[in-house]
């Protein structure tokens, strides 16, 4: 039996983000119920943590070969063409992730230079944006690992 590849750091980061979202949301609900007011920071942190959770989860899905794709064409093709399609898919994914990384780094740098502050808490905006290119890079690494494993036969596609 083959062992499923793992993306442990992203899995832990996603779980941590989910737990923090649950705790601050619960705290906000209880506070609103007891006092009629709410914490101002919860929405800002929740949105940030949802982005982290999304990218971390996507990275885990890439590593485990669980991203949504249409396998009908892959299964219908002979082995050589299937490999070419796998390389094409990886190239398209790498292009998109590369663009996210490139423009994400530019955005983080601009926000750092401009000293932009977040609207809710007044924290430096780049603190939130820094995670976008970082987690996109993690996804790119996982995409390369997944593609290598698919091409070598160590990772079988779903049937």
From TrEMBL:
One of its GO terms (cellular component) is plasma membrane. Belongs to the TRAP transporter small permease family. Part of the tripartite ATP-independent periplasmic (TRAP) transport system. GO terms for molecular function: transmembrane transporter activity. The complex comprises the extracytoplasmic solute receptor protein and the two transmembrane proteins. GO terms for biological process: C4-dicarboxylate transport. This is TRAP transporter small permease protein. The keyword Metal-binding does not apply. Residues 21-151 form the Tripartite ATP-independent periplasmic transporters DctQ component domain. Keywords: Cell inner membrane, Cell membrane, Membrane, Transmembrane, Transmembrane helix, Transport. It is found in: Cell inner membrane. Its main location: membrane. It comes from Vreelandella azerica. InterPro entries: DctQ, TRAP_DctQ. The keyword Protein biosynthesis does not apply. The chain crosses the membrane at residues 12-33, 45-63, 84-105, 125-144. It holds the Pfam family DctQ. It is a multi-pass membrane protein.
């Amino acid at each position: 039996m083959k062992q499923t590849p793992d993306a442990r750091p992203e899995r832990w980061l996603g779980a941590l983000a989910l737990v923090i979202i649950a705790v601050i949301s619960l705290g906000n609900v209880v506070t609103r119920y007891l006092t009629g007011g709410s914490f101002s920071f919860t929405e800002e942190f929740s949105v940030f943590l949802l982005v982290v959770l999304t990218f971390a989860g996507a990275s885990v899905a890439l590593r485990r070969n669980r991203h949504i794709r249409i396998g009908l064409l892959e299964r219908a093709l002979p082995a050589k063409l299937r490999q070419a399609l796998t390389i094409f898919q990886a190239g398209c994914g790498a292009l998109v992730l590369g663009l996210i990384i490139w423009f994400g780094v530019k955005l983080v740098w601009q926000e750092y230079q401009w000293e932009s502050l977040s609207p809710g808490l007044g924290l430096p905006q780049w603190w939130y944006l820094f995670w976008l290119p970082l987690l996109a890079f993690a996804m790119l690494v996982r995409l390369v690992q997944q593609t290598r494993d698919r091409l070598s036969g160590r990772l079988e596609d779903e049937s």
